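re: ur question from earlier - yeah i can do the single chain one, its not a big deal. heres the input i used so u can compare w yours
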Amino acid sequence: MNTTSHIRQTFDKGQGIFRMAPAWVARNFNQPGQRLRLHPDDYFALGMQRGAIKERWFSSVVAASMDPRTPWDEGMSYIASSTDPTDKILFKEAITELGADLIGTELKEKYGTWPMYSKFFDYKMALFHHMHLDDTAAQRVGRLGKPEAYFFPAQLNNYPGEFPVTYFGFDPKVTREMVRERLLD
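and the output i got, formated as tokens:
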């Protein structure tokens, strides 16, 4: 039922404001911190192989694609209908249909879509060190860069986890040659 008229009606009914359904993302590393306020039985709702739900994504038009078992739309945001909970509109489809009316002329012209999203992370232990490419480097593989920052407001995190730090560096056994080889790969 996600026709152009249905998307426009939902947009107009909300006076330009969409109600978004939760977008949960499971990860098969680390343990859940259990601060997402899910029922304890729901952390592994997608199965033990997929891992626990540890992230909630907001206003996302990209899929979580870390695992081949991940559904095509995991992490992508849906607009919830106020009248029928089974009637969902993919946020990405709404952007395609409404364009600049929804995201503004500047974003539509520069990116063609909504280029950002936010996440709530809920990891019990520290995350491993990782990096994201900037726009220039990502363009070489046909992608957009991923500027990323983390903020953990104390008033929303009364429990900091078991190990609220992240190390930066290499294991002493890692050689320069190993790093070079991985970078070339």
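Residues 46 and 76 are 16 Å apart (CA to CA). not sure if urs matches, ping me
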